Amino acid sequence: MNQIKANMPAFILFLAEAAVGVLLLVNPIGFTSVIVRAIGIGMAAGGAIWSVKYFRTPVKEAAASGMLFCGIVSFLLGLFLITRTQWLITTLTILLAIYAIMILFLGILKLQWTVDLIRMKRERWGISGISAVIAIIFGALILWNPFKTTEIIWKLAGASLLTQSVMDMVSLFLCPRILAKEEKMDKNSKNVKEDKQAEKDGITNP
User: What is the DSSP letter of 92?
Assistant: First the structure.
């Protein structure tokens, strides 16, 4: 519980990643379509409100605000999102490629952390190592995209989100305990050295 309270924003982010990952795995096209249409409806509604508000605002204030321009642009973009959802989903594979590159870089960074932890003889290197391997594999697969359908690549992205969120939550809970254990061991080792030094000083300086 203390780890959750201390890292609440990160914990909420991990849960959100896991939820999106599950939804993409269950119904990637349907979930993405709902999200895109919901954004479109929100933008269209906001555009309509801004446009109406423009005509209800005093002339000088309205002229300086640019509400009519923002309202019309927002409404048209919302309408585009609502009516061209399937086209957008197909085009969003470009965003998936960007996401894959980010995941790949993150995996390589975690690999560096793993090597650093091994060289420092830390106990928690296994968690970072597994997370690094998973990130590199998912990133490479999404970027390479050997699949024939968009649905499969979206499901793979969902699996990547879900796996990364689980690994991050495991790290969130386990690493503080391991760090505390290592700090206690370091402190005990330091105390032993100080005791030995004190005994040595006592012998040499009666």
Answer: T
Do 107 and 134 form a contact (C-beta atoms < 8 A)? yes
Judge whether 135 lies within some domain.
yes
Tens-place pLDDT, residues 65-117: 888 898 999 999 999 989 988 777 777 667 677 778 888 888 888 888 888 87
Asked if the structure places residue 195 within a domain, the reply is no
What is d(CA 134, CA 154) in angstroms, rounded to the nearest whole number? 17
Residues in the chain: 206
Domain residues for the domain of 38 are 2-188
Domain assignment of residue 142, yes or no: yes
Q: CA 54, CA 63: separation in Å to the nearest integer?
A: 8
Digit-coded pLDDT (tens) for 154-187: 777 788 778 877 877 777 666 544 444 444 445 5
- Residue 161's Cβ-count burial label (10 Å; 0-12, 13-18, 19+) is buried
